[in-house]
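User: My collaborator and I are trying to settle a disagreement about how two of our proteins should look. Neither of us wants to argue from intuition anymore, so we agreed to look at predicted structures for both before our next call. Could you fold the first one, then the second, and keep them clearly separated?

Assistant: That sounds like a sensible way to settle it. I'll keep them separate. The first protein:
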Amino acid sequence: MTGLSTHVLDAVTGAPATGVLVSLQDASGTELSTGTTDADGRITSINDFPLLAGIYHLVFDTGNWFSDNDIKAFYPEVDICFEVDDPTRHYHVPLLLSPFAYSTYRGS
């Protein structure tokens, strides 16, 4: 399986962050595709095209999600920059989100 997926978890409640808009961008900031997290906080495939080797950004619209959920927060967006080094593999980039901190890691 190849491609790119993400999962956003509200680290305060432990619940999925449903309805977060996510943009996939190339290194120059050009938007390549978008998606919105589902009821489980996931986007199973944000791209419908092969990712070539290179630098990409996943930009999470956390400001609107926090606002929609009446949460006062510090981060209006989260930009996770990552590198695809092997286009034949699947990349999973999760986001653990809270109003005043976030964390990410390379998932499987």
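The second protein, kept apart from the first:
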Amino acid sequence: MEKQARIVLAMTAVVLSVMLGVACFFRAPKPAAVQTAVASAQDIYNSITVQGIVEAADSVAVCPYENAVITAVYAAVGDSVEAGDILCSLVPREGKELEASSLQSVWKSFSESSDQTVAAEERDAIRAPVSGTVLTLPMENEQVWSEVPCVQIADLNNMQVRVRTPEVYAGNLQRGQMANITASAAGERVYSASVASISPVAVRTVSLTGESGEATVEAVLPLRGSTEGLRPGYSVTAKIFTDYHPQAVAVPYEAVCQRGKQEYVFCVQDGRVVQKAVTTGYLLEEVTEITEGLTAGELVILSPSDDLTDGTPVEVAA
């Protein structure tokens, strides 16, 4: 009897040992600690940044009636004048014609910043053709030529920015796109503008050594709202928003990984990993846009390890 009892106890011990071993073998692995972030919904803009010059949107340049010398000046640059005001008097003078290269340079300068050019109607005076602010004016005793504008009047309540966009970005420009304008001379103030026109041709600069520079496409952006602090001729930076995705899903860029040709994010649901195939959009400074496969509010794992798989138990690290 005692022998049988010992046998039963021994068998029981063996069974318990086997059960303990099986329990240890099949015991749930310890959850891996992971860092997470919440997928957010935010407005995403894509933009290009180019340099430009402020100019009056409405201005008129005036050429003298004939070659002459300025005898008196009755206004100053920056003065407000009314249409018909005498700006300067002059007397005819026959003199050496302006060289073609100089004439072309002056005309180019005025044509880029003036809407129209007119000729003075009087031999001995130049009057303001429109009301506005004097931007350009000759000096007393200065020689002026009938072919060359010497006076410019502009409406400074209506200004615009003229930019030159490198050819690599020019295809992204469209009329109506919004832009933020900043100028070093205006401090941290940001002005609003929009693309009104885009040149149909590109311009390529040529250096004095004959080397061809980068081709650029010119665009004009009328300023909107207050332009206080800006003046014609100021150099500005234009940030043109070429694309806009409202309330796009975005995650920190370290949440996206690629396995093979497919991109994935790993989410946490009920303490386990859920692997999701996604399609990405813009890669911004700190986040990546997710265009398909994820919704805002989901908990995503940052920098997922290579051995992380669907269903793996995880613990969110504090």
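Some points you might bring to the call about the second protein. The chain has three domains: 32-43+246-316, 47-52+158-245, 58-157. The first strand starts at residue 32 and ends at 34.
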